[in-house]
Amino acid sequence: MSANEDQEMELEALRSIYEGDESFRELSPVSFQYRIGENGDPKAFLIEISWTETYPQTPPIISMNAFFNNTINVFLVHCSSSAVKQSILAKLQEAVEVNLGTAMTYTLFEYAKDNKEQFMENHHPVNSTTSISNIISVETPNIAPSNKKKDKKEQLSKAQKRKLADKTDHKGELPRGWNWVDVVKHLSKTGSKDDE
Description:
Layout: H1 3-17, E1 24-28, E2 31-36, E3 45-50, E4 61-63, H2 70-75, H3 81-99, H4 105-114, H5 116-119, H6 128-135, H7 158-167, H8 183-190
Antiparallel strand pairs: 1-2, 2-3, 3-4
Helix pairs in contact: 3-4
């Protein structure tokens, strides 16, 4: 099988395996990104794998230069970001050598997912406001942060939700005047001035 046939088969496999996976992104038919870790996780990182013309007989190009990985720079305490990235890339290169000659993109992404904690063991995120204020030395006005808690929305019971749903039309909208006071009932309670 030629390298192109191998790549076409692997491309189809990747598309079917990662269909609907928000962490996977196909940049081109020969270049892919995968986010290791959840969005908002300070230890999450992005791996980019690009195939060469002769891949899988030759190693793919693995990169961690994505903008997403810049958060590694901000949150590092004990070692430099490039050291963490180089360590991850070195471990991925070891996996490449073991799998050379076979379709390995899925294997590399899964290897990174399985070893995320080990890869990031020297990456110690700290309170983001502390680290950012230590990095940025520009004078900023002293503004007290707002400690107001967001008002919690009132929770409705199932019966209340059902009653509300029964009042809505086919578009899910309440009809005009649905919460108006029953005028007749109101007038009967208060009496009219004509009675006096």
